[in-house]
Every structure is written in C-alpha cells, then in structure tokens.
Amino acid sequence: MSQQGIAAPQQLRELVDKIVARNLDNREIWYVISLGFETTNLPMIEKAISAMPAELNVKNQTTLVETLNRVVNGAFDRSFRFKVINTVIKTYLKCPSPDMSKICECYVLTDNAESAADTITDLISRNLSTRSYQIAFDLYETASQGFLDRVLRRFEQQEQPADAKSMEKVHSILKGHETVKAYLDFYVRHNHTDSVLMEEIKENIRTASAHNALLISNGLMQYGTTCDDFLRNNLSWVSKATNWNKFNAVASLGLIHHGQEASAMKVLDPYLPKESVEGFGFKEGGAMLAYGLIHAKHGDATAMSTLAQWLKTAENEPVRHGACLGFGIAGLGSSSVSGYEKIREVLQRDEAVSGESAGIAMGLIMAGNLNQEVFNELKQYTVDTQHDKTQRGIRTGLACASFGLQGDAEPYITEAIGAKSNPMLRSTGICMLSMAYAGTGSPDVVRRLLEKVATDPNLDVKRYATIGIGFVLSKDPNTCLSYVSMLTEHFNGHVRYGAAMALGIACAGTGNMEAIGLIEPMISDKEGFVRKGALLSLSLIMCQQTDYTCPKVNGFRKQLLKKIGEKNEDSLVKFGAIIAQGLLDIGGQNAAVSLHNSDGQPDMGSMVGMMCFLHGWFWHSMHFFIALAAKPSCLVMVNENLKIPVLDYVCHANSQKFAYPPRAESKKDKDIKKVETVVLSITGKKNALKKAAAAEEKKRREAAAAAALHAAAQSSSSASGGAAAGAAGEDEKMEVDQQGKPKKEKAPEKDTKPIHRLCNPARVIPAQRNLITISDPRSYSPMKPLYKGGIIVSDRIDKEREEKLVSEVVAQVSLPASSSNAELKPPQPFEINLTDY
C-alpha cells in the first residue's frame, strides 16, 4: 500500500507493530527487515538495524550483508535504496572486519565518491595496500569517469600517506592505465579470429552494403587484438569503399587498436587531416571516430584536448560527425560541462549529419546525469529543427543521459511521453523510460511499456517500447521471456523486431534455449528487417557459447554463412548476418556482450553502447558502439606490484566443453576431389582375366570343401569336419578382402580428462568461472573469488619462493602498407668475387 501511496487502516498498522515488536524481542531481526522491504517501510528497517547490539556478532554481520544484497539487487526506488544503503553502512562499518569491497560498491550506487576515496586511503594507512588495489580495479570497472575524477580530486585534498608508492599505484589503476594494459595483453595473446571465415565471407560479397558490413564486422572480430591483417592483405578490396563506407573502414581501426592509446596517433597518422582535408573528409572523420574508440570510456586530458581541437578546426560535415562521436565515446559519463558546450556549438549549426552525432555525443558526456537545463534545451531543439536525423540523435542522447536515474527522471519522461502531437518526443520518452529503469525489473515500468505497444499508432514508439522491456528486465531473462513470448508472433513487424531484440538484450551471453526457440522461427519472417533482427538477437544470445553450453551454436554459424551466400536473400538480411558473425566472434573470440558488471549491477557503458547500437537501424556507423558492451572473458591474476605472475589454474571440466569453435574450412579444401585413376584398355583386359581365373579357383575350392564335409559326415568324425569348415571359412574370408581399398585414417583422440589446466592470464568464459581454482593454493591468496573474473589482485603467500613473471606480448603497431613511410629501403652495397664460382 505504501508503494501506491494508500494509507493502511489503523487496525492493520497496530497488528504489524505488534508483529515487529515480538520479532525484535526474540532477536528475529531479519524477519523485520524483510517485512520492511516488502512494504518499502524505511522506518521499520531503521528500527530493526538500531535494535542490533553494540558489539555485532557473526549473525548480525551476515544480516547486514544480506540487507545490502537485497537492497542493491532488488527492484526498489532509487531514493529508498539510497536511504537504506546509508543506514546499513553506518552500522556495518562498526563490524570488526567489514567487507570494504561491498561498501565501496554501495558508495558507487549512492554516488559517494568522497567516502570511496577515504576508504582507499584508510586501507593504505593500515598496510592493506593489496586490498586497496582490488577496490581501485573494481571502481574503474563499475564507476563512471565523473565518479573516478572526483575520487582523484579527493586524494589531492588529503594528506599524502606514508606509503607514497602504493598511492601512486592506486592513481594508475583509477586512471585506467593498468586495466587497459592488462586487457590489451590478454586480447593480443589469445587472439583466435578465423581468417579463413573472413575470406569466405568476402568472396560472397557483391554489394556496397555487404562490403560496409564486413568492414564493421572485421572491426568487431578483431576488437582489441591490434591485428589488422585482413585489411592489409586485401588493400585493393578495401579501397573500393567510398563515401561513408570509407568513413567506416577507417573507423574500424579504432576497434582493432582499442586500448593502444600510446601509439594511437602513429596508427591513425595516414588518415588524420594535415594542412587541408582531402575530398569530402570521410577518411579524416573516420580517423577521429577511431581515435575516440581507441580511448573509449577512458578519455584522459590529452585525448579530450586533441579531439576538442579537431572539433574546432573541422571544415565539413563528415569530419565534424567523426569528431563529435569520438569526443562523446571518449568522454562517456564524464559530465564535463565544457565538453558539453563544445558539442552544443556543433548542434547549433543546424546540419543534419553532424547534428545527429552532436545529439548523441551530448548524451554520452552527460550519461547518468540528466538535469532540467539539459532536457529543456534538447527537447526544444527537437521541436524546432527540421532535420529528422538530428531529432533521432537527440532521442538517443537523452536516453543515454537518463541511465539509472529511475524516479529522478520521471518529470522529464512524463513530459516527453505526454506530447500527443509529436511522435518523435513520445519515442524519446519511451527510450528515456527504458534507460532510466534499466536492470531494475520494475513491473510497473513494464506495464507502461506494454501499454504503449498496444495503443500508440507510431511504429517507432511501438518498436522502442518493445525493446525497452529487454532493458528493464535485463537482470531477469525468464521474466522477460514470459512478457515478450506472445509479442514474437505479433501482426506488426516492428513489434516482432522489437521482441527479438528485447530477448537478445535480456538474454545476452546466456545461451538461453527457450529464447532461441522463440526467435528461430523469425529467421524466416516475411519482413527483411525482422529476419535481420532475429539474426542479431541470436548472435547476442549465443556469444561465447559452445556445443556443451548451447547445442545450437554451430548450426547457427552455418546458417549465417548460408544467409550471406544466398543470391536471392535481401541485402538488409545479409548485412545483419555479417554483423551477427562479428558479434559471435567479438574480441578474437575472447569477449562476450554483457549488460552488467561482475557484481550484477547494470553497467553504464554496456547499456549506453547497446542503445547506440540500436541506432544502427538508421545509421550504420553506430554499430561500432556495441563494443562498449563487450567484456573480456578473462581471468588475470596480478601480484602486489601489479605484474602478472606465472601460475596455473585448474578447470574441473573437460577442456573440449569450453574450447574455441572449430575453424572454417577454406574453399580450396572443400573443392578438392579425389582424382580417379585412369585405367588403360590393356590393363582392363588383364584385370578381367585375373577375375575370371579367381572365379574358377573359388569354384574349385568350394567343391573340394563340400566333398570334405560329406566325407566327414559319413565317418562321423566331427574334428576333421570342424577343421575343414574352419579352413573353408578362412578361404572365404580371404576372398572377401579387397586388395587396394584405402584404409580409413584414425580420427584424433578426444581429450576425455575430467580436468584441465589454464595458464595465467587465462581465457575463462562465463559458464566456466565456477569451475576454476588455483592449482597451488599455497602460492597466492586472491582478494576476491575467482568466479568474479576480470583482474584479481593477490597476495604472495610464500615470500621466499622465487616469483616468475609472464613475459609481455608485443602489440602490432606498424603503419599501413599503403603509406609512403612503409616503402622498402634498398639494401646496403656489397661485392661478390666471381672467381670462386
């Protein structure tokens, strides 16, 4: 009743008060807290927590941890959640050994950067540096750039701790240097992209849209691997890209070299503007987007100032378009007012293409920090402008800015959805509603979205409302299935497309067989865009799945190749199939699309990246943004010096259950046929005579055997009869054998061992994490459970034992083969004495 704003009757309140008082007298505190959650009664929860004794025992600590887990993972209002968290933390900090990682996770949720910084400083002062490093890594993974900047500023205001080296390492972690370096090493070391598959797809491409799709797909497949061999080996083919395809070809380098920040300018130098822009600036604009993708979610001062300078000097729309998108993705979640104002200047130029990117970039910068001024400004511009591209860009931007705000965004959402005469504003309100409550599982929000699916006449509104269900229920795939299952058979194609994408978003990386069963019939839908959506959705669901975890994944891979190769298939479907192939193998088959972090909370970068990816319906360049949702499937153990030591993990399962998918066969191997031996006429005659002689000999032996059997029967000698029969059997068996028949080669023996070992840093897919242990538990003590994955800091137990470190891999940083700097140098002069020859 409290949720609906209805006052409870007096008798009911008295009854509840008696129950609460009795439970508190019996020290049944968890029952009272649970009742408070069910009724969203904050005073009841506060009363239960205050009733705990001054000296908290193990049971009380467990109750507090369970309370934090319940409020963090439950579908509660944002303000209620903040108040409960603050109440619990005040008491929890009094525990003898509180879980500081859990507390800092709560600080991120309540946007309390100052307390998070104080916690790290306190740990360092107590000689718990290793634990502070782990918290810093977790903060970089879960917090926004704006939050991290405030933590670093708080450090500057504090007195320098005695252990300055530890604080220096914390600074390096919070700035992202250590995480970026570790993930780059992992992607390069474990790259398993199927180059044969890429060549096979290239051979089946006949249109400009498919050419564009493969360039984008190649960038996704090679995300973070620094391996651009496919582009180098097919320069003449790549050079066929024109206009915006050229823009995407260059921008794909940003995905390939993601994280290679130190050499970003060297990699992109041939494409960046020099004194003047060549042609229309597609190449230069793509290079600026690539620069932003290399620094995605990690735009330091140097990168942002470089992008701002390019934005200021841009001379035409493609260059401004690339600079805006690069600026937005590098400054994601920074909430920088100066950056927002620089992008606003581009929006006010009232250009269609650059206006679209400016609207998106403004939302990326203000992600999770929408305010009244920003909303009013962008809403008014949506009404005033005549460019539908700009309106769509602002729609995506406002959705990104609304992420995670829940009830705080309701005034803006209500105003946008209430615009009955403006379908663009209504669809904007739906996108804002989906992102504001993303991952909350709120049934009320789902009902509002379903109502729009049923009643709104605009197709964009219907499509985004259906997709929004996937965002809201992304933490609860089974509930999403129950809501969306009927919509997969809706008469409206846009609703069917939205249902497919909603299932893909909610079940991303899970291999959910029920969801796959609902989507598979849509591959044969009469509408091309629905078939495309089904392929994209299935690729999201089956990403990082094997035959063991999802039996249909290999069949789906074959189906994608079939769709790409069919001559009569719609070009839109082929485009989707090629992008789907890139999603399946994203990050060199070492990453998975996931919308939540390791703690199970909605991840800003992933949610925003998925929303921008959906904008690919209108603009192909937005498909690059799905890389924001890619999480490396790795387990990287680092020591107290942030170096990667040599150690082994044990996976308690057969190695083939989680192995890479089998590589595609090259077309040459498929076309090779057995060459029949040519038989000459004279050889045929000789063979015929041999066969005739063999037949006569066979008849003679059969007659002799029959006579011997008859004689044996008459003499009643079973022994001799048995021997003769045996001899006859041997003769017949010898005649059956065919000389010259090729022997079958034995297939390679499969690994049947119940366990296998992995080396640090290891590729560990999500389904494998619960099966991992350290081979030698006496070597290192990790700061958090291994099933969390990612980067885990560990303490060395045996300090006297010699520690070996993993050698670093060298990333590929060579210049493009087409550049003038790549020209081969002539050899040094030399002399040859010909008298020796």
From TrEMBL:
Claim: Repeat is one of the keywords in the record: yes
Which keywords belong to this entry? Proteasome, Repeat
What's a single GO MF annotation on this record? enzyme regulator activity
GO biological process, alphabetically ordered: regulation of protein catabolic process
Q: Where is the composition biased (Basic and acidic residues)?
A: 735-754
Does this UniProt record's set of keywords contain Repeat?
yes
Q: Name one Pfam family in it.
A: RPN2_N
The record places domain 26S proteasome regulatory subunit RPN2 C-terminal at 634-805
Q: What region holds the 26S proteasome non-ATPase regulatory subunit 1/RPN2 N-terminal domain?
A: 8-191
The record's annotation in SUPFAM superfamilies points to:
ARM repeat
Give me the Gene Ontology terms describing cellular component: proteasome regulatory particle, base subcomplex
Q: Which ranges are annotated Low complexity under compositional bias? A: 717-728
The source's superkingdom equals: Eukaryota
Region of interest (Disordered), residue spans: 717-755, 817-837
Q: Which family does it belong to?
A: Belongs to the proteasome subunit S1 family.
Reported function: Component of the 26S proteasome, a multiprotein complex involved in the ATP-dependent degradation of ubiquitinated proteins. This complex plays a key role in the maintenance of protein homeostasis by removing misfolded or damaged proteins, which could impair cellular functions, and by removing proteins whose functions are no longer required. Therefore, the proteasome participates in numerous cellular processes, including cell cycle progression, apoptosis, or DNA damage repair.
Query: Whom does it interact with, and what assembly results?
Result: Component of the 19S proteasome regulatory particle complex. The 26S proteasome consists of a 20S core particle (CP) and two 19S regulatory subunits (RP).
Supply the name of the protein.
26S proteasome non-ATPase regulatory subunit 1
